[in-house]
Amino acid sequence: MRKIELHPIEFEDHTAPKLGFLGVDRYCLLRLAAALLSFIIGLFFAAGSMAQMFFMLAAFLCAAYDVVMKSVEEISSRHSLTMDPLVLLASLAAFVVRLEVDGAALMLLFRVCTLALDYAVKRSEENLEKAVDRRGTAVRVVTETGETQLDPEAVHPGDTVILSAGEVAAVDCLVLEGSAAVDLSAVTGSSFAGSAGEGDAVPAGARLLSGELRAEAVGPASVSLFSRIWALSRSDGDGKAAVEQWAELYRRFFAPVALALAAVVAVLLCVIGHCSVSSAIHRALCILIVVNPAGLLAALAVTAHTGIAGALSRGVLFKSISSVEKAGSAAAAVLDKNGTVTTGKYRVEAVRSGKLDSEILLKAAAHAAANADMPMARAVVDAYAGDVDYSVIGNFVEFPDGLSVEIDGIPVLLGSRAFLESHGIQLPDGDGSDEILLHLTLAGQFAGTLVLSEQPRSSVNETVDALHAMGCTDIVLLSEDSTEKTHSLSRLCGIEKYYSNCTAEAKLGRLKELQERSGKRAALYVGAGECDTDCLREADLAVILGGPDSPCAKDADVLLLSDDLRGLPEAIHSAALTRNVFLQGAGVVLGVKLLLILLAVFGISSQLWFDMLLDGCVGIAAVLNAVRAFPARK
C-alpha cells in the first residue's frame, strides 16, 4: 500500500453555538417579528395617516437596529461601506418624502434577504463539507472491558481501534496487527486500492474492502489528514484572483459611486425628464438599492468554494480562488521529469553477455542484487524469472552506485562503469550511447552488461492528450538527463517539446520563456518530491504530485492528492467549470440589476420593496446555482 504520512495538528474550534431559529440570534428574530407585526397593523390604517406613520416608524426602528449598529461601526472605523448605510439612508429618505410604507417594507425586506442570503451561504458550505467528507461516523475502540463505540472526536492518541471489512475509518490510525485490502478513493480522489499491513498508515475516509485491522489512533477526527486538507482548501492562499480584485474594488467604491449615480439620476430626471422632486428621489433610491453587490459577492464566494470542493472530491486540492482562476486559463504545462513523468522504477531491456549465457548472467546479477535497495537493482531481480537462493549469498555491501557480494564464495561486483573502475576493473570501451547500464564482474573478470530503461508513468500519454484537448498548446518536458535519454522518454510519453541537460537555472529560464509565449494565459509547472522551488515560485501556477506533507507542498498552488498525473486535466476541467458557472450566475444577476435600473429610471416600476425583494431573490438564486460547480464524482 502506498505510504501516507499522518501528522496530527491542532485546530481551533471556531464553531459558535446556534441561537434561535436557523442559527439566527433569538433577539434578532424577536425584533423582526415585532417589525413585521407593526408593519401589518400599519397597513390597516389609512394611507398617509398619523397612525400608519407611527406603526411604520415602529416597524422601521425594530428592523433597523442591527443595520444602524453596523453602519455606525463602519463609519466610525472608516471601513469600506457595505450596503447597510445605503439602505438605511434610502429608508429614511422614503420617510422624508412620505413613502413610509415603502421605507418600512424596504428595511424589513433588507434584513430578511440578508439573513436568508447568509443562511444560504452557510448551508451551502456545510453541505459541501458533508459531500466531500467520507469519514466514518463512529469508532470501535478496545477498552479494558471489551469494545465500545465512540464519537470520532472522543478518540485519544494511542487508542486501539478495530476496523473490519466494509467499515470506513473515522480517524487516522497506524496498523498494529492484521492485513486488509483498502480503498483510498475517498482520500485521494482516484480509484486507488491497495493492501495495508503492520506499520502502514490508514487515513480517515479509507474503506476496508476485506480483512480486519487492529490499529493505533493518531488522534481525533479534527486532527486527521482530511481535516488538514479541508482547512488548506479553505485558506485564503497567496494573492488574489482578478475577479476577487474586481470584487474588492466594487466593495470599496460602490457606496460613493452608488450615491453619486443616484444623485445624478435624480437631477437629470428633474431637469430633463420633468419629474417632480419626490418622484425623482424615489426613482434614484431604487437605483441605490439595485446596485447592492451582496448577492454577486456571495455567489462568487460560494461558486469558488463549491468548485474547490468539487475538485477536492476528485483528488485535486486548490489552495485559493486565484489558483482556480489560473488553472482555468492554462495555456502551457511544464513537466519536470523526476517523479512526474517517470515512476522512479527501472526495467531490464537487454542482457549483453560475453562468454556467459545471457540467462546465467541474469541469474548471477539477480542473486547479487537480491538484498539491494537501489531501484535499478530491484529491476534486475524482477527481470529474473527464477527463484533466488539466499543461502549462497554472503558478504553483501551496498554502495551509492553499485554493490559488492559473494555468491557461493565467488566475489561479484555489480554497478556503474565508474563504480567498477574505482575497484580496479578494466571494462571494454564504451560505445558512446546514452543507455542506462549495469556492469557485472565475476571473480574480478568482466562478465557482461545489463541495459535498463526508466519507466514512464502509464498515465502520461493519456494526460498529454487530455491537456492538448483542453487548449494547452505547449507541453514541455524538462530533464537533467542527456539529449538521447530525454528524447527517448519524450517519444514514449507523446511529448513533442523537451529540453535536456537542464540545471536548476536552465529550468527557470525555460519556464520564463514559456511564460512570455503564453501571454496573459497561465503557464503551469508540474513537479513531484523535492523539485525546484524557484520554478514553483516563478510559475503562474505551481502543481505538485502528492499531499500536504510533500516536501514542496508549501510552495505549490495545487496539490494532486492521488499522486497521479491524470489529476492535472481534472484540475483544469474543474477550474473551467467553476469559472463558467460563476460567469453564468453573474450574468443573470447583472442582467436583472440592469433591467431594474431601467424600469426605475423610466418610472415603470419604482417600488423600493419590490426592487429589494427581486434583487435579494436573484442573489440567493445565484448562490444556489453555484452548486453546479461541484462536478459529479467519477
Could you give a short description of this structure?
With 634 residues, the protein is α+β, with helices and mostly antiparallel strands. 47% of the residues lie in helices and 20% in strands.
How would you describe this protein?
This protein is of the alpha+beta class. Helices cover 47% and strands 20% of the residues. It contains 19 helices and 20 strands. The protein has a 7-stranded mixed β-sheet with strand order 8-20-19-18-9-16-17, sandwiched between helices. The longest helix is centred in the last third of the chain and has 35 residues, at 567-601.
Largest beta-sheet details:
7 strands, mixed
C-alpha termini separation: 22 Å
Multimeric state: single chain
- Taken from the alpha-carbon principal axes, the silhouette is elongated
Number of alpha- plus pi-helical segments = 19
* CA-atom Rg in angstroms: 33 Å
Helix fraction, binned, reads: 40-55%
Mean pLDDT: 83
Structural class: alpha+beta
What is the beta-strand fraction? 15-25%
Number of strands: 20
Can you tell me the residue ranges where pLDDT is under 50 for at least 5 consecutive residues?
1-5, 7-19
Strand order of the largest sheet: 8-20-19-18-9-16-17
Helices and strands in order:
Layout: H1 26-43, H2 50-77, H3 83-96, H4 100-132, E1 139-143, E2 146-150, E3 160-164, E4 173-183, H5 185-188, E5 193-196, E6 201-202, E7 207-217, H6 225-233, H7 242-271, H8 277-290, H9 294-312, E8 316-318, H10 321-327, E9 330-336, E10 342-353, H11 358-369, H12 375-383, E11 393-399, E12 402-407, E13 410-415, H13 417-422, E14 436-442, E15 445-456, H14 460-469, E16 474-478, H15 483-493, E17 497-499, H16 504-518, E18 522-528, H17 533-538, E19 541-545, E20 558-560, H18 567-601, H19 608-625
Parallel strand pairs: 9-16, 9-18, 16-17, 18-19, 19-20
Antiparallel strand pairs: 1-2, 3-7, 4-5, 4-6, 4-7, 8-20, 10-15, 11-12, 12-13, 13-14, 14-15
Helix pairs in contact: 1-2, 1-4, 2-3, 2-4, 3-4, 3-8, 4-9, 4-19, 7-8, 8-18, 8-19, 9-18, 9-19, 10-18, 11-12, 18-19
